[in-house]
Amino acid sequence: MNNRITSLFNIQYPVIQAGMIWASGWRLASAVSNAGGLGLIGAGSMYPAVLREHIQKCKQATGKPFGVNVPLLYPDIDQLINIILEEGVQIVFTSAGNPKTWTPVLKAAGIKVVHVVSSAAFALKSEAAGVDAVVAEGFEAGGHNGREETTTMVLIPSVCEQVKIPVIAAGGIGSGKAMAAAFALGASGVQVGSRFVATPEASSHINFKQAVVNAKEGDTMLSLKKLAPVRLIKNNFYQAVQQAEDNGADANALRTLLGRARAKSGMFEGNLEEGELEIGQVSALIHDIKPAAVVLEEIWTEFRDTIRRLNSLES
Q1: 113, 148, 119, 107: which is closest to 133 by C-alpha?
Q2: Which of 19, 72, 95, 312 has CB atoms 3.0–4.6 Å from 116's, for a disulfide?
Q3: Which residues 6+ apart lie within 8 Å of 2 measured at CB?
Q4: Which among 168, 175, 176, 186 has a CA at the least distance from the CA of 304?
Q5: What is the pairing mode between strands 230-233 and 220-223?
Q6: Using alpha carbons only, what angle is made at residue 304 by residues 299 and 306, rounded to the nearest 5 degrees?
Q7: 53-108 pLDDT, tens digit each
Q8: Half-sphere exposure (CA, 13 Å, Cβ side) for 6?
Q9: Is the pLDDT of residue 208 over 70?
Q10: Position 273 pLDDT exceeds 80
């Protein structure tokens, strides 16, 4: 397929693997890139030296394009950006912050920049900041989420109406049918997160991967809204947060309850009861763990089959 996203990143399929904390290291990123999509290293859970190691290993594992996802609110952001520049990374996805701050620096180095947004207003600001594309991420997505709670079905056409740059759809997309729906709404590509968590190449703990496979409809909820909204699998930690919020806990109290390394404990170390388990609603549709290349091929095949089936309705 040749469209705005495949041309922008020089990839075969307009499918981007999301840069997820504790899940998307060099193994997953390189596997997705080698299969024809765009793999992303998730820098959000990495110290600067660790990020450098993952970039270098990804270079060795694939000769195809890959990128790095960088949450802009992290305290070591300047060090992370310097490593990206020093290592010659060509594609950067930014999130959780103002794209005006670092986009000019990255663009000056010839890097293609994409920013993750949760509203059309933020998409317009990102376009004005000079990014090459935006990821419009709906309320269904895992991890940190937009306060607007706009669903993907509403967000994608809204963003596509207002910006001229390519739009990548995210949130609730884990199949070719969902990809076809996103394209019908105007997207030029999709970003897939939760489906790639349930792969051997994801760096997350097998306990967490199995929890994703076992998740049913309604097992995830948006939580910690007074801090930064995040979608979690319901467990003991989630219940403690809900009880605290029901009792009127303020942001400081919730921050104390969250503590440090809660996400690492859950997703990377496999503590399913007291850890923070970030995943999307689409987990209810994920039933097995399979290689990233197989996931990508299944998404693409189902996407093409769905388009053909819809085209046949015209006859």
Answers
A1: 113
A2: 95
A3: none
A4: 176
A5: antiparallel
A6: 90
A7: 999 999 999 999 999 999 988 878 999 999 999 999 999 999 988 999 999 999 99
A8: 10
A9: yes
A10: yes
Three-state SS annotation for the chain:
CCCHHHHHHCCCCCEEECCCCCCCCHHHHHHHHHCCCEEEEEHHHCCHHHHHHHHHHHHHHCCCCEEEEEECCCCCHHHHHHHHHHCCCCEEEEECCCCCCCHHHHHHCCCEEEEEECCHHHHHHHHHHCCCEEEEECCCCCEECCCCCCCHHHHHHHHHHHCCCCEEEECCCCCHHHHHHHHHCCCCEEEECHHHHCCCCCCCCHHHHHHHHHCCCCCEEEECCCCCCEEEECCHHHHHHHHHHHCCCCHHHHHHHHCCCHHHHHHHCCCCCCCCCECCHHHHHCCCCCCHHHHHHHHHHHHHHHHHHHHHCCC
Q: For the CA atoms of the chain, what is the radius of gyration?
A: 18
Would you state the pLDDT for residue 272?
A: 95
**pLDDT, tens digit, 9 for 90 and up, residues 176-199:** 999 999 999 999 999 999 999 999
Spell out the residues 6+ positions from residue 48 whose beta carbon is closer than 8 angstroms to its own: 76, 79, 80, 83
Q: How far apart are CA 39 and CA 216, in angstroms?
A: 27
Residues 6+ apart with CB under 8 A from 262: 237, 274, 275, 276
Q: Is a pLDDT exceeding 70 seen at residue 24? A: yes
Residue 109 burial (CB count, 10 A) = 15
The CATH number of 4-203+285-312 is which of 3.20.20.70, 3.40.50.2020, 1.20.58.1370, 3.30.70.270? Answer: 3.20.20.70
